[in-house]
Amino acid sequence: MNVCIIVLNYNNFDDTLECLESLSGLRYRSKKIVLVDNGSDKEVFRKLQEEVSRRFPEVEILRLEKNLGYAGGNNEAIREYCNFKYIFLVNNDLQLDSDALDLMVDEMEKDEKIAACQPVIYYYGSDRIWSCGTRIFLGYPRLYMKGKRAEIKESFEPPFGLVGCAMLIRSSALRDVGFFDENLFLMHEETDWCIRAKKKGYRLLVTRARAYHKVSRTIGLFSRTYLYYTARNWLIVARKHGMKMFLYAVITEPLRIFYYLIKARRNVIFYIKGLLDALRGVRGESNIRCR
């Protein structure tokens, strides 16, 4: 088989089953689907395991006893299945057109220097784009073409990086660049990986394949968890990759604090805590759990 599809689940029953339904309908034949349960509650996992075994017997289940975050959970599966030519990381709140994987693999096959690619990702149930990769805007990797209504007919290189919710990665590039940084735990792991890949001379690509994203169904948009890790990890990544990027991020942080004061006033203190923890050198999983 050519592609190992890795779906990470944490306490999300319905979206995960819908995602597996979409993946099972992909036309691309040379694939294996692996569901990684990232330390879900035992009852949730039992129910999910029973339903997956009944409806998707071809899906392999890898159970982790502890939530290792996006980085750790995916890394565990990547280590297990890196003998495949490609690893396709898919969020469990995402669905794809049936030809999406064919189109993505076709693009990757054209040039071995393409380390990874993604589809055009639309908001679920909408014709508005959620992401065509990312670009740096006022010191932060913002979603590129977010909110636009457009049909992408040709593949292109994004201004900055890719998003990790539907990312097809060449296994040889993973071995060369390294796996995801588990110090980040959650958020911006793919940002860091894309920067490292580009520094090694690899290319990144947005293809014309299409996917549909429900957006932050597991942790919640503007939740305490979302805001904390978004703030902390971007400063960690920016500092890791050079003083110029780090200073640009720090100088523009007041703009983002103001934005979240408008969008998420009740939880903005957790964004500020994330910034402070980044400067203090706090890494790994935080004890912030509530939404």
Automatic annotation (TrEMBL):
Cross-referenced Pfam families: Glycos_transf_2
Domain Glycosyltransferase 2-like: 4-177
GO MF terms, alphabetically ordered: glycosyltransferase activity
Organism, scientific name: Archaeoglobus fulgidus
Keywords: Glycosyltransferase, Transferase
Protein family: Belongs to the glycosyltransferase 2 family.
Keyword Glycosyltransferase: yes
Keyword Manganese attached: no
Protein name: Glycosyltransferase family 2 protein
Lineage, highest ranks first: Archaea, Methanobacteriati, Methanobacteriota, Archaeoglobi, Archaeoglobales
